[in-house]
Amino acid sequence: MAGATEAQSTPNLEGIWILPQTAPADPRWQIEDFLCNGAFCSVAAIDYMKRLLADPANDVRTLKDISGQISVYGRNYVKSLFTAAELEASKGFEQRDDPVNKCVPSGFNFADASLPIKITQFKDRVLIHYEFWSSERVVYTDGRDHRANIAASRLGDSIGWYDGSSLIVETVAIAPHLTYWADGARSSIKARAYERYSRSEDGSRLIVEKTLVDPVMLRRPLTSRESRLSAPNVQIMQFQCDTRYVEGFLPKQ
Amino acid sequence: MTGRYSLALLLMVLAWPVFAHHNAASHYQLDKSITVEGVVTSFRMVNPHVLVYLDAKSPSGDIQHWIAEGNSVGVLERVGWKADSLKSGEKVKIVGRPSRDGSNLVLWTTITKENGTILYGGVAVSAFGEEGVSPEEHQRLEDLRKRQIEERSQSGQQPPPGSPPQK
Questions:
Q1: Whether A51 and B164 lie within 8 Å, measured CB to CB
Q2: Interface test with A, best of B73, B126, B149, B153 (most A CBs within 10 A)
Q3: pLDDT at B15 over 60
Q4: For a designed S-S bond to B48, which of A12, A130, B21, B164 qualifies (C-beta 3.0 to 4.6 A apart)?
């Protein structure tokens, strides 16, 4: 039984929410959604993009050119936040080292990827279903604290609370994982995350801001933002990693 | 029957080619382009990424096995891909990004069949400017940009202070 309709002070965040990859022809998308939107789009890069698009001097430039500039800025910005430990940890990484190649699900920082998510709210918790890896996350909103001495896990231990029109989620006990922010970049056991889920003013979008705080790997918190469209008619698909994918990679030639 | 492959190291700029399970930039050289022509030996509509296996003839004449990696099933099925979109024995030309480690992997952006049919969708649509975006999609994005410029022009909005310099 959904709680959002029962407690009037609780913002309704329920629904199926998508990024452009799921329905690229949806006329509600704006140009910004195609240039910088998703798990690897930092708030800093989004601000940079907006300034570029608002400057008439860039009107004659191709979008390809502008997007390249945003991309370079975004990558440099992220790398500027890396600690020496992060730079060291990412050395020597090779594609085939990625655990996903063995069907091990990607970690917390890339739990949703570009695939749809479904949010269901209850009185005491929020369920976030990710099509990616067909995984489900429980965010407790009943006032409890994090569980003591809980072992680190892929999606960690999440508690949440409502702040006006937003749901704030705090997650700890996140298992160290490849963050994919850069080649070989990973999180440490000290990482924690703060997320803010809110609807756009017209209600058609879900804005998710995710801040990763990792005193070992990041000099400052790193915040990404994605803007998802409401898509009630999209069917959430089953995601099964196929071992034929694992078998697929050839030895280096 | 085999095809051939050639490297075309073209400088290309990309936006946010985020794959279903990883950031493509961490695995592939996104500023380079490679063309592989060969014969499909297997097409696997699997997660986390759809795979095309092909045999291609190297410049020295020997046959090399390649894997072309696309997006996830969930992304490709929604834009029309099916399990039989490619068949073993088909001759194809695959354009994409070469691997970082030099192995015979390519992140495909387009797959052109012998009859000229072009399959898109290998790279996230957000990677604007990619050859992986269909001409229709490309035009739609250009139209969005034009509309944005027109709206700003009509509003008389001034450029923000401290606009980033052009490249």
A1: yes
A2: B126
A3: no
A4: B21
